[in-house]
Write the structure tokens for this entry.
Amino acid sequence: MKCPYCGEMLADGSQFCARCGNRLVSATAVAGAPGGVGTPAAGYAPTGVQTTSGKAIASLILGILVFIPFSAVAAIILGHLALSEIKKSAGRLKGQGLATAGLILGYAEIALIPVILIIAAIAIPNLLRAKMAANEASSVGAMRTYSMAIFSYAEKCPQQGYPVSTEKLGPGAGDCDSANLIDRVPATNPSRNGYVFHYEPGAPDATGRVMSYTITADPIQQNTTGIRHFFLDESGVIRVESGHAASAESTPLR
């Protein structure tokens, strides 16, 4: 027998078309029906129009949205469900291509996860080491700036000796209260570029002059913002230690 809606050849006695899904009425149900195939049952108005599976559409969308967590897994699950649903619909649903595309994208994303993890495992430690090296280099540069500014201050203000704080080195009139030897940030901000700086003037002598000082620079977070610790005193020599605070006995920086 032949489907009167889509022309598909079907086995005799079929009640539904395997292609378009419309219900068929046999010749015995409708007397005189030509060709042995009846007309649609009363009140039934099939259109034969296929609709697209919503699961297939969702599978493709989730396969594209790679940055949503677990989107690849959802795309795979919905893709398989959509293909099964389309197959069982006897032609009422379409969207097999969409579901297949969603499956391909989902499986591709799953396959790329190990590659991404390997790249991240290699790149992240290298980026962290590069950042720590940059922080350490910046700290050494800051220590040298402090050293030159402090000696310049002592020459400018011999009755005071070394400054009682780094704020005395900052912008201003150029006198002993604001010597204008360094910028405002290093003069007033103890923490920058992953390191915290601490200036400690020595005890004044009998004339009230400060003749010694120390500056330390330590990572804000050990092994994250930096590894090495730095020390500077009136000798002008920067000393360094790895993993713990530096002192006057530490190895000179080379």
User: Anything to note?
Assistant: Residues 66 and 192 are 37 Å apart (CA to CA). The longest helix spans residues 96-156. The chain is about 35% helix and 15% strand. The radius of gyration is 40 Å.
